[in-house]
Amino acid sequence: MSLIDALTRAHPALEVLPASAATAPYAYDAGTRRTPVEHGPVVAFPATAAEVAAVVRTAADLGVSVVPRGAGTGLSGGASAGADQLVVSTERLTRIVEISPADELAVVEPGVINADLNTALAPYGLFYAPDPASYAISTLGGNIATNAGGLRCAKYGVTRESVLALDVVLPDGALVHVGHRSIKGVTGLDLVSLFVGSEGVLGIVVGATLRLRPLPVARRTLTAFFDSTGEGARALGAITASRVRPAVVEFLDEPTLRDIDAHSGSDLRRRGASLALVELDGFGIDEQTAELITALTAAGGRVAVVPDGEAPLLWELRRSGRGLGQGAPTWYVGEDIAVPRSALPAVFDYFPVLEARYGVRVSAVAHAGDGNLHPLLKLPIPPGLEGTPAPPALGAAATDLVAFALSRGGTVSGEHGIGTVKLDWAALELDDRVQRLSHAIKDAVDPDDVLNPGKALPAPVLQPA
Amino acid sequence: MSLIDALTRAHPALEVLPASAATAPYAYDAGTRRTPVEHGPVVAFPATAAEVAAVVRTAADLGVSVVPRGAGTGLSGGASAGADQLVVSTERLTRIVEISPADELAVVEPGVINADLNTALAPYGLFYAPDPASYAISTLGGNIATNAGGLRCAKYGVTRESVLALDVVLPDGALVHVGHRSIKGVTGLDLVSLFVGSEGVLGIVVGATLRLRPLPVARRTLTAFFDSTGEGARALGAITASRVRPAVVEFLDEPTLRDIDAHSGSDLRRRGASLALVELDGFGIDEQTAELITALTAAGGRVAVVPDGEAPLLWELRRSGRGLGQGAPTWYVGEDIAVPRSALPAVFDYFPVLEARYGVRVSAVAHAGDGNLHPLLKLPIPPGLEGTPAPPALGAAATDLVAFALSRGGTVSGEHGIGTVKLDWAALELDDRVQRLSHAIKDAVDPDDVLNPGKALPAPVLQPA
Fold it and tell me: What ipTM was estimated for this complex?
């Protein structure tokens, strides 16, 4: 029996799209969209956790592998699907089941959009801290599957730190609950943390109990402009050396300021050659502001407090990206490396080395508070070569930069995940024994490789017998 | 060949104690000390990570199982060992390898005492946040193995939130590194979190990269006394409803205040029938103090700011415990349940129910900020019955209370772990499928059950074929 027949027979009420040109958008996510397909996979839209479980069981019985999918905003190909796979979309699981101010938690279905939860929480004076750049369009289930980061992580933690409990559909269709509604809890292995960030290879999140926080009593945005990228990158250490821990520290290098100005009409580059954009929050906002101004000024910054009315515009400039897709056509690779904070200046210093060695252009914004950078490596496409693959130099430069981050104790992915796109880089990071250990765990949880096969975990070199 | 012969032959420089009466203290930890043994296990004291790896390999080759041990301060039997097992002590692995203020991290060996790290960090203006009550005597390796909590967890997180990377000896003696020196990182499965809190059943931590924080710019201690335990427990919700998030909120009920007064000569009970002992820290300490005084006063508290000179004494009274072992001989059971904060009043209200039903005495202190309680259930021992087992009513009352916590969305262990002592209770919390999943992961990592067999994971009911 075909998959689509089996699904509609076993689950008459299930919304399901047959494999067709219409489901082609479900064949890729934002990380693999550049190589579109003609024909998409079968896509199921279960409306309840039990329906997810039943659909997975049906697929497993037929030997069809399952690709879990939230909003498809992932940047690493974690939600891309082959024509012979079943995509299980969580788009219909959009209920905010509970908001408990007394316990500072919310219980949600996985298809809830990150920003929608915060909209619902605002009247309670609460917020959900993890704020990936995609917060307006990405789902909480996807955020959990990738252990999504964001701007506020240095102070408030990544997604993992905000997940108390999960309802998970296992690869055989069993529905389990792990974790608890209490803040603390150490009973048994920490399966919540194991599922968070596992990119759908161990289970499908169908419910989550999320930790909330009180909205800060005050917020303040500061800018610190510097005369060069290097000076700014080195000045970031002054924040660590102070006693202030901002909610957000974004660092934008010189090419990034120029790019933003070019596509937004702003005048950032005129004000300096690099920018630390800082948000303070919480009690004692004036004390915090004074201490940070002292620290950054001593480090060479021209520091200003941004009037409250102007702050949203600056943050919007930062979040709106760097104008890719505008101007001359360009081959590009986006990275997501993270390094120990002290290594940030060395990373920016390495960009000119890469540019000289490979003929590419390199720039980056950094979530400087946690050492996470998003370097962008670009090569202009000569006239007539649009649509052709990038020259090997671009990929070589990207891999060179990844290796540099690893040599400084960093990681190939700070927050986007591995998916399919970063498998080769992940293999550079994880030693062979760790790769085999990870696959042993995957095999223990999913012996038939039903869930998201081939994603997230680089294939280990086989051990000689 | 005997284990001791194999160890001394393979590792001539290894410090090792043969099984004897002298090693009897290594047969139990602080959770199982009440049932001492005559004869202890073989104990090895490796001095390097490589030596730990080699010793584990030797034991595995001989089919001898290994019990990892830090300072033996655990309260759940996780480090207790049979006479046929090998105890691998980390007592010789006491180096603080690195302190990096720029990256806010320390690299340590597992035998470093928690308090010793903080002593070393103070000159840098940094601290390591997790502070189990045993911080003066427990090792960081043991803290990691149990995902230890403490008083400051509601604000600063439990041990897991402070572990960036681990060096781990696997059950076959392989030495692996997982995690990174960056704050963020999502490459592959979160093996760091899997090892943290796994109570030595998956690997032995031989090195750890720990996240540090700046010492707060200010600290302030407040007391809030209430006219009854119930009134105080209900008032705790006023803290959550405020925008202040204290570093510590300890709640002491009426019998606890009396016990402390009896063994310390203090006069807490005269000042009220329950006490919320609060530490605020960070910027805006006066604003925080004012908002919290308003909130707790409105909730019925008699709130006072404790003069700085007197605060350490109060915290010492809290940490020194409740005078167990003094006064009339008593059978007792100590618990470590955690519940959603809103359920704290219900738990305290349940104590009189238990007392009436089982004839026991019940009291508790609570890490109220994260809903973690340490109830103490006691039965006086009638003259002549010292040394005899407690009547079944005591255990029945303890299990009844655990079930109550679970019914409120809580957990049987907030921070002490399961070890051997709480296996039956863990089985009440974890559904059968989750137990089987946990064992499947244990089997994948440790197929020969070399490391700490029988601990931490309740044995699942066997699935019918």
Answer: 0.96
